[in-house]
Amino acid sequence: MLNPIESFLTNDRLMVLDGALATELERRGANLNDALWSAKLLIEQPDLIRAVHADYFAAGADVATTASYQATFEAFTRRGMSHTQAADLMRLSVTLACEARDAFWAEPANRVGRLRPLVAASVGPYGAMLADGSEYRGHYGLGRTALADFHRERLQVLATSGADLLACETIPCLDEALAIADVLTEQGSIAAWISFSCKDGTHNVQGERLADCVAALEAYPHIIAIGVNCTAPEYVASLVEQAKAHTTKPVLAYPNSGEHYDAEGKVWSGACDEAAAYAEQAARWQAKGARMIGGCCRTGPDDIRAVRHMSAA
């Protein structure tokens, strides 16, 4: 198994992740008030997805995270699509990111001081398929075996789609992380990162200590980085510090903008940080041990550009 992030992290370099996809698509006029969320545009506006990926690469991102977070067989079946059509749309999410990456890399000026960016196929949690905000609560009532069964075929499709690695993200609980790790071990073909959504500076959203979750994943070789995402920025420094103390794997952090999400109303409220302030926080996360930093919901290319400039300073 290749480790695609290894070359990015030599000499204590920071690997810059991309920012939000769905909320950036919304900012550009897309209506994602839908159970498929960003995956809706795989059907309706794939060119817009490709354009957002391109802008993140131009802003300095070393990786694009695909529009497959909410792309599941169950969700596409509810739309009347066949099994084959659903798998094709999952593969399309990777193709769009690869096309944006390859177009970016084809320009010689874009290669100066850069490594060829990666494409990470997004794997959302079971709760994302439910489309009711469960990924921000956990407590699904499903065991590890059932969760592995849910993830297995989708992981296989995405692992063979041309992506460099998988981004298993916004995971609310240890059981789901272990279920994904089990399936990755079975399939043995691709590396992945796992990132948890957390409710404070110590616990994931289900209430388990992040330190315990990180330690439990240490033995899985296909998990090549561990961290947090879609978490309030104010908690990230503490979470990174705890994760770093319990793993030898690179720690990653890509929180949301600091705004609050109402899962029932599907709206955001509160104020977001300016890009410069976001980069200042990112510098603190790096000082605590984060090796991979980007953004999640309500962050955008300006935030990623600021993180890139911070890392180069």
UniProtKB/TrEMBL annotation:
Keywords: Metal-binding, Methyltransferase, Transferase, Zinc
Listed InterPro entries: BHMT-like, HCY_dom, HCY_dom_sf, Hcy_S-methyltransferase
GO molecular function: methyltransferase activity
Origin organism lineage: Bacteria, Pseudomonadati, Pseudomonadota, Betaproteobacteria, Burkholderiales
Protein residues bound to Zn(2+): C230, C296, C297
Gene3D superfamilies referenced in this protein's UniProt entry, alphabetically: Homocysteine-binding-like domain
Keyword Transferase among record annotations: yes
Protein name in UniProt: Homocysteine S-methyltransferase
EC number: 2.1.1.10
A biological-process GO annotation: methylation
PANTHER family attached to this UniProt entry: HOMOCYSTEINE S-METHYLTRANSFERASE-LIKE ISOFORM 1 (PTHR46015:SF1), ZGC:172121 (PTHR46015)
Pfam families linked: S-methyl_trans (PF02574)
Organism listed in the record: Rhodoferax saidenbachensis
Keyword rRNA-binding listed: no
Cofactor or coenzyme needed: Zn(2+)
